[in-house]
TrEMBL record:
This is YbjN domain-containing protein. Pfam families: YbjN. It comes from Candidatus Thiomargarita nelsonii. InterPro entries: Put_sensory_transdc_reg_YbjN.
């Protein structure tokens, strides 16, 4: 039976190594995995695996793409993200714009967070992370192939 462990970056690194994903580490020790352009997705994707929270108890997965969303598409993209969020559990999708008054483009971010203050076992972290990876790719296939974005 798997044992519950204190959540830390080593659990994320174990997942990345077990799945043979090439990753980089930033100065805080968080991980990023980049995927090249894919015709089915219509973009490149970057996954960030982040440990945050006042006691490093929050596991956050943040997904960005290289696809800029022009201002004239913001309303449509907001509706598509709302539709996705209503119908799908993972990941949460939203339009990110730094300054709505001056920016001419935004981008879609996908995100999930889970509080792991009580710990987690490796198998559950692997399953959770794999689910977010898989459903993030599904989101972009849906956006590109079915919604024309």
């Amino acid at each position: 039976m798997p044992s519950v462990k204190k959540f830390d970056r080593s659990l994320i690194e174990n997942f990345l190594n077990e799945t043979n994903l090439n990753y980089l580490t930033d100065k805080e020790g968080d991980f990023t995995v980049n995927f090249a352009y894919d015709e089915e997705l219509g973009c490149e994707l970057s996954f960030w695996f982040i440990v945050t929270g006042s006691n490093d108890e929050i596991y956050q997965i943040l997904v960005s793409s290289d696809k800029d969303i022009p201002k004239n598409q913001w309303a449509r993209v907001l509706m598509l993200c709302n539709s996705w969020n209503k119908e799908k559990r993972w990941p949460k999708a939203y339009l990110h714009v730094e300054d709505m008054n001056t920016d001419t483009t935004g981008n879609i971010l996908l995100e999930e967070q889970i509080d792991l203050e009580q710990g987690i076992h490796q198998e559950l972290l692997n399953d959770y992370t794999g689910t977010i990876l898989s459903t993030s790719f599904q989101f972009w296939k849906w956006m590109h192939l079915e919604q024309g974005m």
